[in-house]
Amino acid sequence: xxxxxxxxxxxxxxxxxxxxxxxxxxxxxxxxxxxxxxxxxxxxxxxxxxxxxxxxxxxxxxxxxxxxxxxxxxxxxxxxxxxxxxxxxxxxxxxxxxxxxxxxxxxxxxxxxxxxxxxxxxxxxxxxxxxxxxxxxxxxxxxxxxxxxxxxxxxxxxxxxxxxxxxxxxxxxxxxxxxxxxxxxxxxxxxxxxxxxxxxxxxxxxxxxxxxxxxxxxxxxxxxxxxxxxxxxxxxxxxxxxxxxxxxxxxxxxxxxxxxxxxxxxxxxxxxxxxxxxxxxxxxxxxxxxxxxxxxxxxxxxxxxxxxxxxxxxxxxxxxxxxxxxxxxxxxxxxxxxxxxxxxxxxxxxxxxxxxxxxxxxxxxxxxxxxxxxxxxxxxxxxxxxxxxxxxxxxxxxxxxxxxxxxxxxxxxxxxxxxxxxxxxxxxxxxxxxxxxxxxxxxxxxx
Length: 447
Prior knowledge:
The chain has 16 helices and 17 strands. It is of the alpha/beta class.
């Protein structure tokens, strides 16, 4: 291909903009358009290796990361489809390779999206539907041993819920989020998530509230799906800083996850339970050990150890990044900060930016006992971001000291001017969109 023809190809952002114009809504749950697309593509979803389908409110991405790292440690080729992306759309598509998967390249992704665009023939479809169809198309064209498929929103009407017979269905903790699409009770939300359960397919479930568990149990029984629930079929504990997993097949004593926070032990346990609940894969203890230690997942209590932002804050400070954006996400981040405080005490500052449809007060309440210093920032270039004044009002209603800043860099520069006896611990949180912006300006996008 010559240079002039290469320049003539539209960049991915232009292509995504064109696809975005095909539907007036960003989110429009339903499967009819998805089935139409897949039929026109020749049903790539029927040509996949074994699929592990993952739904839930929090922990989906981290659980998938443990699954991927463990399967790759067992020398298996793993395709993975995740959302949303943080910096580049390529992050949503990881292609399995011997020795470890790779993010899809621009040219290959462009070709897949253009093929989906071609068969769609200008009919209404959301960007998520189009890119999910592109993922199935890519995965069917590239050989692999397993597909890890993360639900985008809910489960029942999510575009990923078109695989009839996955190897396993996984449900991470269910909590209140996206109530405008999934219902305003835990029972209704759990019902949407549990609808990924397929007849006779093992379903592996994290620890849940009583309401959510009742829904999941009922759906598993209805579908005659073997249910492997945390605290019943399997257990995970922290003992002397190590992860101890047990089920009816025995016990494993493993090194603690690299991902930080007590909740990561639970996510790792869920991944282990999933791989032990299906006979599709042969995983030995060495692969579990390597996977639990080696899993990485950006913007989940991620320590920013290099990049542009470190020089802007107070000298010697720690900067952590977490994309948590609902009350439960705030709870696990706050618990992780509490663990850090026990190890090394530092004053805590929370820089927060959120989307307008989130409950800022419920999220920030988790940090009220840890810090009185909140810096509220906007999320740049993002539709429906929460105005800073709404964030400051939410923090003040909790008795927290809060100040606005025009952006992340300005917030860090302001903190650098303050006098700290001990350099602070800074958490940037509230939205995956904000987290993506942080990784971009820091020069450390996911790879």
